[in-house]
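User: Study the fold:
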Amino acid sequence: MKLPVRPPGRSGYKGPVIESTARAGNPLRIRLSVELRMRLAACLMFALLPLAAGAADPVFEHPATVAQLNVLLGGTAQGLTRAVAVRGEFSQRKFLHELPQALNSSGDFLVARGVGIVWHTRVPFDSELVLTPTALVQRDAGVEAVRTDASSQPGLGAVEQIFDALFTLDLQSLDRQFALYGAGGEAGWTLGLKPREAAFGKVLTAVVVSGAAQPGRIVVFEDNSDRTEISLSGQTLLPALSDADRRRFK
């Protein structure tokens, strides 16, 4: 089966591509190039905005340390830190500058700390993306369609670590890759991330995460005016992975 390909019209990137822009359920187009292998070899993981749109969010007026964000996020970060895994549901809107309308999808996800991420799209089609430190696997209707091992794409492990930290709010890990920002209000908290590495910034310009008791919304701004908006709901913190859950990461 052929690898998914980007829509026509993109330019400037010369390396191999693993992306599923034709499929709204892929939260992240993982682009692996020589530049990005330095750090992430880049995800999991989202009105057309200008290039610096993410930086316009008010949260980026408030630089913050890990200690300050731990206070801001309070029990949210602490609960996620104690959990072995997080299970929940998502709805997603992907805005691509080549397309006049957003690509909409929904499904469920499982993020296990140090194990990987399962992103299972149920609508508009059944497709599952599994990202672990050792491989990227795509399954269509339960059948494996694509497998890429970290031995051939060394940056996969770094990509998995970044999105593991993002979904579990591992602030220490995020601080190594991103400049941190934070703000709070009556409705909850907002966390802003800007890549520290120039190579990473060529793919991802900013990430904004907001929530209250749990992370509720993630917006990923990309370098080409694209963005992905993900709404999370029904999160359950798991003290352990079942055997069935572990099999999903193989």
